[in-house]
Amino acid sequence: xxxxxxxxxxxxxxxxxxxxxRYSQQNAAQVMRERGCACQPYRDVYTFNRWRAQGYGVKxxxxxxxxxxxxxxxxxxxxTETYEMIRHFSWGFVFCRHQVQPWSAQARAETQxxxxxxxxxxxxxxxxxxxxxxxxxxxxxxxxxxSGEYKGELHQLTTAAARALxxxxxxxxxxxxxxxxxxxxYVLDQLAGERGLExxxxxxxxxxxxxxxxxxxxxx
Length: 220
Ligand SMILES: [Zn+2]
Fold this sequence. Notes:
Structural class: alpha+beta
Helix content: 40-55%
Largest sheet: 3 strands, antiparallel
Shape: elongated
Low-confidence stretches: 1-8
Strand order of the largest sheet: 1-4-3
Oligomer: single chain
Radius of gyration: 27 Å
Bound molecules: zinc ion
Strand content: 15-25%
Order of helices and strands: HHEHEEEEHEEEHEHH
């Protein structure tokens, strides 16, 4: 099994947190209106993340000031397979110097540890989804018994389901004694050929593995 590793966004440095591309008189006026203080954008007014990068945390109960901003995004052009810069209007949420206080070393460490854990579990989940999307067992997941604790067993296969999976009526020899169901091993062997897997057992493992991954995604 291959897992996809996603690029990690680098943490902002203090210098980056203080640098901006442009200055806005309107934003300063907006801060004056909302807060009644003389805090200046890009000197006393930053986003939560930019304050954090400078060693400040937002005081409990403080509400963000909303400022209009232009955001930039990279969008992939599927025709040329290149990325293009796009701009769109958005709201920025910022806090002025009166709303923040220096972080204690302990508070900082605790918050960063919590965020790192959340970030890693998010990355792990995204990698699982990617892997699942190309997994040879992904369409068999619905036949894996998953009630309660994961069991990793295949349900009984109805003839209709077998037809849907293989695209043909099951051979007489493949039918189970009740003739409403099909023996999995016949279907698995056929799917193995189609999917380039070694044998029916490998298809069964793929189904179980995909089910396990889906369980994990759903639980996260
Ligand atoms: Zn202020």
